[in-house]
């Protein structure tokens, strides 16, 4: 069966020293009290090696927040999937709405990134989600379907390795969370889209996380929904106690 997962997305926050301290704190808390879900922290590229050094094997996973769509070569400033993997990381967030919106990442690039991540043994946390206008004009199911379908040229065995994160853009960092019902409806929709292409078994085994102003106070209600398999957490992942509070929603 699919896994429950709480993943942190630190975005462009923390200096190296602050990041290592935060990772160390979370690791210590998780060692003291085993989580009832998988935990992953996704951190800036600059922090990966040092953070890997302070987290214990089996306590939590480590991810990057992006990787290049190119394998290697003359792409100044880019970081490849192979480089991410070589730090000891095991996950990578791809297609976050901030990457789509501010850096113009499109479906074709995201498919290339996903293929490279998989080829290098990284688990993609692939983000989808509609903007406010699409929520309001009712096109949100179609929009998210299109974002998921961007990966449908993958072989089933590869698609099966992907974690999906549904993050309505209007809920990210705004304090405005989707209701648990809105999240459940979309997650069930995404699962049916996957089932249509890859079959029910693969769809049932795909973890679909919710992201967007998820906090200790609303995590339990969201995660209680049958198709919500955990969360991708931004702001609340930057403090060990609030991140732990969300993990504990699975207790
Ligand atoms: P938020 O961000 O929890 O701060 O809303 C979630 C995300 O963007 O992954």
Overview of this structure, please?
The protein is α/β, with parallel strands linked by helices and 251 residues long. The protein has a single domain (5-11, 21-66, 78-247), classed as Alpha-Beta Barrel (TIM Barrel). 43% of the residues lie in helices and 14% in strands. It has helices at 16-32, 48-54, 81-86, 97-102, 107-119, 132-136, 140-149, 156-159, 180-198, 200-204, 216-223, 240-247; strands spanning 5-9, 38-42, 61-64, 91-94, 123-128, 163-166, 208-211, 230-233. Helix 1 (16-32) links the parallel strand 1 and strand 2 (38-42). Helix 7 crosses helix 9 and helix 11 packs parallel to helix 12. The longest helix has 19 residues, at 180-198. The radius of gyration is 17 Å and the shape is globular. It starts with a strand and ends with a helix.
Secondary structure blueprint with pairings:
Blueprint: E1 5-9, H1 16-32, E2 38-42, H2 48-54, E3 61-64, H3 81-86, E4 91-94, H4 97-102, H5 107-119, E5 123-128, H6 132-136, H7 140-149, H8 156-159, E6 163-166, H9 180-198, H10 200-204, E7 208-211, H11 216-223, E8 230-233, H12 240-247
Parallel strand pairs: 1-2, 1-8, 2-3, 3-4, 4-5, 5-6, 6-7, 7-8
Helix pairs in contact: 1-12, 7-9, 11-12
The structure holds 2-phosphoglycolic acid.
């Amino acid at each position: 069966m699919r896994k429950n997962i709480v993943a942190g997305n630190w975005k462009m926050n923390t200096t190296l020293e602050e990041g290592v301290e935060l990772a160390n704190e979370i690791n210590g808390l998780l060692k003291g009290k085993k989580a009832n879900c998988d935990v992953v922290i996704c951190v800036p590229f600059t922090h990966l090696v040092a953070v890997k050094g302070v987290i214990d094997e089996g306590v939590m996973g480590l991810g990057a927040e992006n990787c290049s769509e190119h394998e290697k070569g003359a792409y100044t400033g880019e970081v490849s999937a192979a480089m991410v993997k070589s730090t000891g990381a095991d996950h990578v967030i791809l297609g976050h709405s901030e990457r789509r919106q501010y850096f113009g990442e499109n479906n074709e690039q995201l498919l290339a990134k996903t293929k490279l991540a998989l080829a290098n043994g990284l688990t993609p946390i692939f983000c989808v989600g509609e903007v406010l206008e699409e929520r309001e004009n009712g096109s949100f199911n179609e929009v998210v379907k299109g974002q998921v379908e961007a990966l449908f040229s993958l072989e089933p065995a590869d698609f099966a390795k992907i974690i999906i994160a549904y993050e309505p853009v209007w809920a990210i960092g705004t304090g405005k969370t989707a209701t648990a019902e809105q999240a459940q409806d979309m997650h069930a929709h995404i699962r049916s889209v996957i089932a249509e292409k890859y079959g029910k078994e693969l769809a049932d085994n795909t973890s679909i996380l919710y992201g967007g102003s998820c906090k200790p106070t609303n995590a339990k209600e969201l995660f209680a929904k049958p198709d919500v398999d955990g969360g991708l957490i931004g702001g609340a992942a930057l403090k060990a106690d609030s991140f732990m509070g969300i993990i504990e929603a699975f207790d």
